[in-house]
Amino acid sequence: MTALLQLLLLVSVTMASEPSCPSCSKYDYEEKVLERMIRMEFAFENVLKENKAVSETVEEDLTRIKEENERLHATVDVLKDQQEQAERRLVSLMEEIEINQSSTLEKIVSDSNTTLEQTIAAFNDIKDKIVTPLVFFHARSPLTNTLSTGEMIVYKTVEINLGNGYSSTTGKFTAPARGLYLFLMHTCTPPNANAYLHMMNEGSVVMGSARYNVGHYTCSSSQVFVQLDAGKTVWVQCSSGSKLFENSNYWTSFGGALIHN
Ligand SMILES: *[C@@H]1O[C@H](CO)[C@@H](O)[C@H](O)[C@H]1NC(C)=O
Ligand SMILES: *[C@@H]1O[C@H](CO)[C@@H](O)[C@H](O)[C@H]1NC(C)=O
Question: Which of 52, 54, 107, 182 has its Cα between 20 and 30 A from that of 239?
């Protein structure tokens, strides 16, 4: 449009400046007008060409901008997707850590419980090994006062019997636990009577005593240490015809205790 206006302006200017010179030929003037018109046509074509080129460039630029815009949109979408994925991953990771932490905690608690139980069991084991169980007994009053050779003395009155080692029916002490035992016997005889006694461990003599006195009641006491395994027995028996004496004064008795295991 601008180009057309420019052309009209040119034409009118050319018309206006038509020579009034009488010497100039009519053809000369027409020639010049024609020449100008041709030049103007060229110029006009150039302007048109330039316009077209400019509009093509603009169109290309627009297309490029459009494409760029689409690419940017696509990139933004991808970034959004990635962000959402990252957020989801983060959330699930945090949940996993939470679960792991609580299961780790549970494991620690149960492990320490197990350790504690093992420690308690080990402690009890050691305690059983080092603590001497309470075993001791004291019995008195022989079932019979007149004894023949080899006869076992049954002390029928049980004063104490911790660990239940002594039997008042057999007169035997049976070790409830392995260890070192101290045994004692206290024996009294009436005047002018003999008493010959042996303390026995599983059929072997561990201690002997003999007494006789004219005209008086007398007593004697004997002690012995014996190492026993659990289940082994100890008792007192007559080694030759004897007469004992016992009344409620605790004159004849048999006792023992586990002193070390
Ligand atoms: C959770 O525990 C499992 C199994 O022990 C392990 O494979 C995983 O890596 C742990 N997860 C985290 C986030 O620590
Ligand atoms: C720990 O052990 C005790 C005894 O065996 C049991 O009663 C308790 O439930 C245990 N505690 C845990 C947290 O496992």
Answer: 182
